[in-house]
Design a protein that fits this description.
eleven-stranded mixed β-sheet; Amidase signature (AS) enzymes; single chain; Aspartyl-tRNA(Asn)/glutamyl-tRNA(Gln) amidotransferase subunit A; transferase activity; alpha/beta
Length: 422
């Protein structure tokens, strides 16, 4: 186990100054844990989990005992080390995982950039957010897996932009105790890994359920009109995926209709921001620490403070109708396959500057969350997998959306297998 951990720490030492995936690395804790596991093996212990001795990273909104939780926010810049593990971290430790450190997040897990972290495929481009550090750490080979959180695409967006796999589970299927909330009604915690096999192992440990493949015989795809405007490389990859599915002997593909993705954007922000406002106010962070928030997040909370009950009721009515229309697609398919994001990784200079006009930053967020966010407001799970690259070598991601994690993982495994066929 010590050898695995030293390999991980050496890789961090080589590349971390370039990628900046980690907010905190605790080499001493990792080495101590590896030594404990080695001693257990020497004493004849038989590992019961494939995670035994595996180096993992944890997004810096999730508590890890002995490490600070600072959430990418000045509000917690002097936060002490956590006294206790988050519930999900306790589960992974019990499986024998070795925690290397905490990964950078967009401030308070609200954002699609993660400004500190760079994309390992091109350091001039963003890793995505808000779990950008977790995605970059896996993509750069610093760890074999990582934890992230997802409220509007925050696992899937950076996973797609960095060329790794990521699972957004059903909301509340993972115990969220010990995590800084963004929107408790939509937050979920899930794993990132290099491929679907490793992702399934992580999910099995997190959920306590065996990694069992299920049959997915019917995959839903969207027409070009429903897909809307996407970058050329993404559109070509999706078209090729559809053609590969049409030739597949074991599954059938069916074109399904879903609500226009642009219909979700303005209305979903009302309950999201209102829930974030309530969570931050209840914790005593806002408005007391208002001056320590970034301009963007401060504006979000200020606006949410002005929402009325009528605003929320109208938004929920619209969201309910949209969700019902989206869920209807699953009466004719086992999983829906669509791009994770409509573009490959944008340049850092295009989206990472907090001094730019908020309208420009909001436009980037709207684009990157377009295909992901509706899943968070529906009883659905989703897995993103790499599916080729653009002409610059930047990864393209496809996501498989289903009624539960097992079906989403099974569909993703199939799509992953088709990635090299075009």
């Amino acid at each position: 186990m010590t050898e695995l951990v030293e390999t991980s720490l050496n890789r961090c030492a080589q590349i971390e100054r370039h990628v900046q995936a980690f907010a905190h690395i605790d080499a001493a804790q990792a080495r101590s844990r590896a030594a404990e596991l080695d001693a257990m093996l020497d004493a004849g212990h038989q590992p019961r989990s494939p995670l035994f001795g595996i180096p993992l990273a944890v997004k810096d909104v999730i508590d890890v005992a002995g490490m600070p939780t600072r959430a990418g926010s000045r509000l917690f810049s002097g936060a002490p080390e956590a006294d206790h593990d988050a519930a999900v971290v306790r589960t992974l430790r019990a499986a024998g995982a070795v925690l290397i450190g905490k990964t950078h997040t967009h401030e308070m897990a609200m954002g699609t950039v993660t400004p500190t972290t760079r994309n390992p495929h091109d350091l001039t481009r963003i890793a995505g957010g808000s779990s950008g550090g977790s995605a970059a750490a896996v993509a750069a080979g610093e760890v074999l897996g990582a934890l992230g959180t997802d409220t509007g695409g925050s696992i899937r967006i950076p996973a797609a932009l960095c060329g790794v796999a990521g699972l957004k589970p059903l909301t509340h299927s993972v115990d969220m105790a010990g995590q800084i909330p963004l929107s408790p009604i939509a937050d979920s915690c899930g794993p990132l890994a290099a491929n679907v096999r490793d992702l399934s192992v992580l999910w099995s440990a997190m959920s306590g359920r065996p990694a069992t493949a299920v049959d997915v015989d019917r995959l839903g795809i969207l027409s070009p009109a429903d897909l809307g405007d996407v970058e050329s490389a993404v559109g070509i990859a999706y078209e090729q995926l559809g053609e590969s599915l049409a030739r597949h002997s074991r599954v059938s593909s069916v074109t399904v209709q879903v609500p226009a993705f642009d219909e979700w954007y303005p209305v979903r922000l009302v309950p999201l921001f209102a829930d974030a406002y309530q969570a931050h106010r209840a914790a005593g962070w806002y408005p007391a620490g208002r001056g320590l928030y970034s301009r963007g997040l401060r504006a979000v909370l200020d606006a949410a403070a002005k929402h009325t009950a009528a605003d929320l009721l109208a938004a929920w009515k619209t969201l309910t109708r949209l969700t019902e229309r989206l869920m209807a697609a699953f009466s004719v398919c086992d999983a829906l396959v669509l791009p994770t994001v409509p573009t490959t990784a944008p340049l850092r200079t295009a989206v990472a500057d907090d001094s730019r006009p908020r309208s420009e930053l909001t436009g980037a967020s709207r684009q990157l969350t377009r295909f992901c966010a509706p899943v968070n407001w529906s009883p659905l799970a989703a897995v993103t997998v790499p599916f080729g690259t653009d002409e610059r070598g930047l990864p393209v991601g496809m996501q498989c959306v289903a009624l539960d994690e097992e079906r989403a993982l099974s569909a993703a495994r199939l799509v992953e297998g088709l990635a090299g066929t075009y």
